[in-house]
Specification:
Helix content: 55-70%
Strand content: 5-15%
Order of helices and strands: HHHHHHHHEEEEEEE
Number of strands: 7
Distance between the termini: 40 Å
Number of domains: 3
CATH superfamily of the largest domain: Tetratricopeptide repeat domain
Strand order of the largest sheet: 6-5-4-1-7
Radius of gyration: 25 Å
């Protein structure tokens, strides 16, 4: 019995050691690949740099540094759409990074990708992030719950009950509206093709509304076959081939 337990313990320990060694080895390979990509970028070999950075994202997932360098490589290679796509992805990981946001705005400015002027209501909801608006919903619910529990032990005036209830209700409504507005624009897609058109209906033979610039942010609303119905930054609406856009936040892969 003791020998069996020892063998089991030894097998577990050996497995842990093998997994740790594999992780260390994989980390070294990724570090070497990252260094090779950086060297290719410094030599102006942007296609090679892009290939190596993309290989890292495929094996190790996304990281701010890799996405940022990948975006810079695409920008230098004249691939505006994919540059903006990866800057946007990097910003999701590091929202306060001034280098990422600065390069993103520079690429947009150089290519004339200006959004529409925001209304006062839109600017108000942009004061807080999606997480902050969501936190306000939680706060409103906590306040209501706490007050209701307090009323079970203490007796408050009718005016106070109405005042607290109204305040919490208004806060909940405002936070919910802010969350919905911010969520709608949280995960756009990016036009990655230099030749993209908006169509009236989801068919190649339908009439075209106009062209969409490479790098333009669009917000998919629904899909039909190989087409997606989108709203772009300037509020233009129409159908676009789904292959010509790529989401900033990729959906999780479903298990097989």
């Amino acid at each position: 019995m003791k020998r069996t337990g020892f063998r089991c313990y030894f097998s577990i320990l050996l497995t842990i050691l093998l997994l740790s060694a594999t992780a260390v080895l994989a980390g070294k390979v990724e570090d070497n690949l990252f260094q090779e990509a950086n060297e290719a970028y410094s030599r102006g070999e942007y296609d090679q740099a892009i290939s190596k950075y993309q290989k890292i994202t495929e094996t190790a997932g996304y990281s701010t540094s890799v996405l940022y360098n990948l975006a810079n490589s695409f920008a230098q290679n004249g691939q505006t759409g994919r540059a903006i796509l990866n800057y946007e992805r990097a910003l999701r990981l590091s929202p306060s990074d001034s280098d990422i946001s600065g390069n993103l705005q520079l690429v947009k400015k150089e290519n004339g990708l200006f959004p529409k002027e925001s209304s006062r209501v839109e600017r108000f909801f942009q004061l807080l992030s999606l997480n902050q608006w969501t936190s306000l919903i939680v706060l409103a619910l906590v306040l209501v719950t706490t007050y209701l529990l307090a009323t079970m032990k203490y007796q408050f005036s009718r005016q106070l009950n109405i005042g607290v209830g109204t305040s919490c209700f208004l806060l909940l409504c405002l936070a919910t509206a802010g969350t919905l507005v911010r969520y709608q624009y949280f995960s756009p897609s990016v036009v990655i093709s230099p030749e993209a058109k908006l169509f009236i209906s989801p068919f190649e033979s339908s009439g075209s509304i106009g062209a969409l610039q490479e790098g333009r942010l669009v917000y998919p609303q629904k899909s039909h076959g190989d087409f997606s119905y989108v709203i772009d930054e300037t509020d233009r609406k129409g159908w676009i081939p789904s292959a010509l856009i790529e989401p900033v936040c990729k959906p999780a892969r479903s298990g097989s």
